[in-house]
Design brief:
Elements: E1 3-7, E2 13-16, E3 20-24, E4 42-50, E5 55-61, E6 65-72, E7 74-79, E8 84-88, E9 91-96, E10 101-106, E11 114-121, E12 131-136, E13 147-151, E14 159-160, E15 166-172, E16 177-181, E17 187-195, E18 198-200, E19 203-205, E20 210-214, E21 218-223, E22 228-236
Parallel strand pairs: 13-14
Antiparallel strand pairs: 1-20, 2-3, 3-4, 4-11, 5-10, 6-9, 6-11, 7-8, 7-10, 9-12, 13-15, 15-22, 16-21, 17-20, 17-22, 18-19, 18-21
C-alpha cells in the first residue's frame, strides 16, 4: 500500500531577506522542522525570488548534488572550477559539489526579478571530483507529456547527477491525464506543483503544494486547470 505525505504551500518555511524571498519545503537555515528534514535523498527544495541586481555571494558546498531550475528571469553563475554562465527559464543546471566548490549566483538584470528552484540531493558517492552541467531544454516537448530533465546517466535525456534519481517536468491542458511508472524499486516520487491545480491519485494539489508518494510502482496525474505545470522528482528513499 502506498504511503503519502502532503506539504501544502502555506505550511512551508519562509524567510524574507528583502532582496531574497524564499520558501523552504524542508528544513533550511533558520527554518528547522524535525518533521520536514528530507524526502528520501531529497534534502532541500527552496522556492526563491531574487530581486533585480541582487544575489548569493561566493559560498562553499561539498558532497551534495545541487540542481537549479529557473522559473522566471535568469541567474549568472560563477564558480571555483572556472565556470561562468547564465541560466535562464528553460535551462537546468546541475553541480556535483563533491570534494568542495565555491560558487555565486546573481540576478544581474536591473529591471526584473528572478524566480528559481534550488534543489539539493544527497549523492550516492562521496568526495567525487566537482563538476558542472547545464543544458537548455525544449519547453515545447513537455506539452501534455512528462519531459525527462535529469537522470543518473550522462548519455540520457537531461542533466545527470551522482544518484539514482529522475526528474520530469510537464505542462498540461485541463483534464489531461498521464501516469508515471517509477523507474527503480524502492524509490519514491515527490511532486511539486509549479502552476495551476492537479489531482495525484486521489489527492488535490494547488500551486506550490508538494506531495511525496512511496511504496508504489506508479502514480496517476490529472491536470485540473489549463496550462498546469509540475515537477516530478523520483528519488531513493534510503539515505
Amino acid at each position: 500500500m502506498e504511503n503519502t505525505v502532503l506539504h501544502k504551500a502555506g505550511t512551508r518555511g519562509h524567510a524574507n531577506h528583502g532582496w531574497l524571498d524564499s520558501h523552504h519545503t524542508f528544513s533550511f537555515a533558520n527554518y528547522n522542522n524535525p518533521d520536514r528534514m528530507h524526502f528520501g535523498v531529497l534534502r532541500v527544495l527552496n522556492d526563491d525570488r531574487v530581486d533585480a541586481g541582487m544575489g548569493f555571494g561566493t559560498h562553499p558546498h561539498d558532497n551534495m548534488e545541487i540542481i537549479s531550475i529557473p522559473l522566471e528571469g535568469d541567474l549568472e553563475h560563477k564558480d571555483s572550477m572556472g565556470n561562468s554562465a547564465i541560466i535562464k527559464k528553460g535551462d537546468i543546471q546541475a553541480m556535483s559539489a563533491g570534494t568542495g566548490i565555491y560558487h555565486s549566483e546573481y540576478n544581474k538584470n536591473k529591471d526584473r526579478l528572478t524566480k528559481f528552484l534550488q534543489i539539493w540531493i544527497y549523492p550516492n558517492k562521496k568526495n567525487v571530483t566537482p563538476r558542472y552541467d547545464q543544458i537548455t531544454l525544449d519547453e515545447g516537448a513537455r506539452h501534455n507529456r512528462l519531459q525527462q530533465v535529469l537522470s543518473p546517466n550522462s548519455d540520457d535525456e537531461g542533466v545527470w547527477i551522482h544518484q539514482d534519481a529522475w526528474f520530469h517536468m510537464g505542462k498540461f491542458d485541463k483534464d489531461f491525464a498521464v501516469s508515471y511508472p517509477l523507474k527503480k524499486k524502492g524509490n519514491g516520487i515527490y511532486a511539486f506543483i509549479l502552476k495551476g491545480d492537479f489531482t495525484i491519485g486521489s489527492i488535490s494539489l494547488n500551486e506550490r503544494d508538494g506531495l511525496g508518494v512511496w511504496d508504489t510502482n506508479e502514480i496517476g496525474i490529472t491536470a485540473n486547470s489549463q496550462d498546469a505545470e509540475l515537477l516530478l522528482m523520483e528519488v531513493p528513499m534510503a539515505l
